[in-house]
Structure formats: structure tokens, C-alpha cells
Amino acid sequence: MRINKLLSNLGYCSRRETNRLIEENRVTVNGGLCIPGQWVELEDNIFIDNKPIPVKDKTYIALNKPVGITCTAAKEVKDNIISFMNYPEYIFPVGRLDKASQGLILMTNDGELANKILKSENEHEKEYIVTVDKHFNDDFIEGMSLGVDIGGIKTRTCIVTRITEDTFKIIITQGLNKQIRRMSRSFGYTVVKLKRIRIMNINIEGIDIGKWRKLTEEEIKELKNK
Fold first, then answer.
1. Is domain 60-120+206-225 classified as CATH 3.80.10.10?
2. CA gap 133, 189 in Å, rounded
3. Which residue, 3, 131, 162, 181, could crosslink 167 as a Cys pair with Cβ 3.0–4.6 Å?
4. Residues belonging to the active site
5. Distance of CA 3 to CAs 8, 17, 108, Å?
6. What is the rounded average pLDDT of the residues 134-152?
7. What's the rounded Cα separation, in Å, for the pair 61 and 154?
8. Residues in a beta bridge with 70
9. Contact, 181 vs 167, CB < 8 A?
10. What is the pLDDT of residues 188-226, one digit of tens each?
């Protein structure tokens, strides 16, 4: 794999940070200076500042993201999730939850697990509570659940249940950009509140807005086995 992906998977630093280290001639592979995007193997002798890559403990965090925080590791982006958490070690968000939405986002330094969770064909469940700008009928519930054409892409069938006249719960197995907002818009509704409450076996229960907790060993084990 590329050096950027390896260092991210090992929880050492981001892919962008890897590029910076390489440009500063601080990374060597088998005795030679590393070049941007270089392909490497775990068995290669990779050194940073003339030292082997340190082994990092894996971190797994469930965050209840507030509205207004952007799910990016790019620190130059205003109100980015990394600056918001100010966590002392390198971590990154697993996927995205758009700026106008709130709720559960997983943070980790385990690139391998993150890739597994995000892989579309694994069809991992994500659950949301959504409020729209007006009352909806049962045709809306049925139409959303059967799949919706959003710009030439038809969403997978999903589970949609009514909570109130203008609020529903939806369980999807995709992660298309602003998917639920676009699905709702196709029926003439505008999402006014969107909250993610579950990703796979991890739920937001007991986590206040803006707060987070470490995942339990049992939760991590189940995540890895799905």
C-alpha cells in the first residue's frame, strides 16, 4: 500500500501529514529517502526522523457532534472536528455527518477498521431521527423506504418509521453525500433537524451534545467482527 495509507492505518498520522514529513526528508524506506505516494510493505524498514515507526495504541471514541462542526481532519477549516475535540493524540472521523446535522460520529486512529466500516458493500446500518418542515403522509414513508432517485443514483431500500406528524426514524446502509436531505427533498420536504443516533452496534445514548466517550472492549470487538 502507499506510505500515506500505511501510516494512517497504523495510527501514526494523517495522509496529509505524511506528505509533509516526506517533503521535509524525514522519512526513509529501506535506507533511501521516501518519495510522495511511495508503495511500501509492512516488512520494509520505515524510519521517521531516523527512528522506527512507534507503535500507537488504537483509540475508539463515540462523539455526539453538535450542529456547526465540520467532520474533517483539515485543521485550516473553520470549526473542524479535530480542533473542536482538541484530543491529545492523532484521531480522525470515520465518515461524515454534515455541518447542519448533529449526533453520533466515530473517531479513531485505526485506519483499517475505518475503511471496513465505510465500505459501501458491507451495508452497515446507520440510524437517524429526522424532522422535516411540514407534515407528511404514509406515501412519503413508503416512497422513502423503497429507494429514491437522487441525481441519477437510486438509494437502497431502507427502514422508515413515523415518530410524529413531521418526524421519522430512518435506517440506511449507504453514506451518500447528504443522502437523507436529498431523499426528503425529492418528495418536496426540507429537513430542519437531523440527528444520527446509531452506527452499527454503537448508539448515542448517554452522550450529551458536544461530549464523547471511549468505546468499550465489547463494542470494539463487535465492530471488528461485523
1. no
2. 6
3. 131
4. 98
5. 9, 11, 19
6. 95
7. 32
8. 80
9. no
10. 999 999 999 999 999 999 999 999 999 999 999 999 887
Task: Collapse the DSSP code of 13 into the 3-class scheme (helix H, G, I; strand E, B; otherwise coil) and give the result.
Answer: coil
118: pLDDT strictly greater than 80: yes
DSSP conformation letters of 189-210: --EEEEEEEEETTEE-TT--TT
Residue 56 has pLDDT above 90, yes or no: no
pLDDT higher than 80, residue 147? yes
Mean pLDDT of 106-116: 91
CB 71 within 8 A of CB 93: yes
Burial class (CB in 10 A: 0-12, 13-18, 19+), 123: exposed
User: Using one digit for the tens of pLDDT, what is the confidence trace for 72-102?
Assistant: 988 889 999 999 999 999 999 999 999 999 9
Structure pTM? Answer: 0.86
Q: What is the rounded CA–CA span in Å between residue 186 and residue 72?
A: 27
Q: What is the largest CA-CA distance in the chain?
A: 67
Which three cell numbers mark 180? 437523507
Distances (CA, A) of 2 to 45, 73, 219: 14, 19, 30
Lookup: cell for 40? 511500501
- Which fold is adopted by the domain 125-199? Alpha-Beta Plaits (3.30.70)
- Going by the DSSP 8-state scheme, the letter that residue 71 receives in this structure is -
CB hemisphere CA count around 63 (13 angstroms): 28
Quick check: do 3-52 and 125-199 share a fold?
no
What strands lie across the sheet with 27-29, from one edge to the other?
Answer: 32-33, 27-29, 46-48, 51-52
Which of 116-120, 165-169, 181-185 has the lowest average pLDDT? 116-120
**Regarding the domain delimited by 3-52, which CATH topology (the fold level of the hierarchy) does it fall under?**
3.10.290
